[in-house]
Amino acid sequence: MEKLILDQSKSKGTFFTEIEKVSEFAREIVLSERKSESVHIKGFSWKILAQIKGKKGSTDNEKWLCFALLCDAPKEENWSCECSSIYRIVSQKSGFADYKRGEFTNTFNNKSNNWGFPNFISFAELMDRPKAFTTKMRTK
């Protein structure tokens, strides 16, 4: 797992999480998760959450990779922070495009401290891609 340490007063930052042995992670039970180490941006502690989920409303057993950005701030205090984010899986082979979802803006606060994609990509599609995501996945 890679960590970029930032000055807490910084208003912008980029950070990553890496998931080693993605195929093993894909075989774990639904709701298994991995979290990045915390980084501090705009005075808040942030993490990336990667989680295995079943697709809502689906009757099959297909597993999906879920990504969310988590803001670890006091729930009892009144605060808010607007954040723009891009979720991507970085290709491990040069010359191949990353798998990403566009840029999104969300306002985090003491009642809503996470936001992401419950169905970012199915593990079936992720493991079928010829772009070398299956050994090590780097999420930015």
TrEMBL record:
Gene3D superfamilies: Apoptosis, Tumor Necrosis Factor Receptor Associated Protein 2, Chain A (2.60.210.10)
Domain MATH: 12-140
InterPro entries, alphabetized: MATH/TRAF_dom, TRAF-like
Pfam families (UniProt xref): MATH_2
Protein name (Swiss-Prot/TrEMBL): MATH domain-containing protein
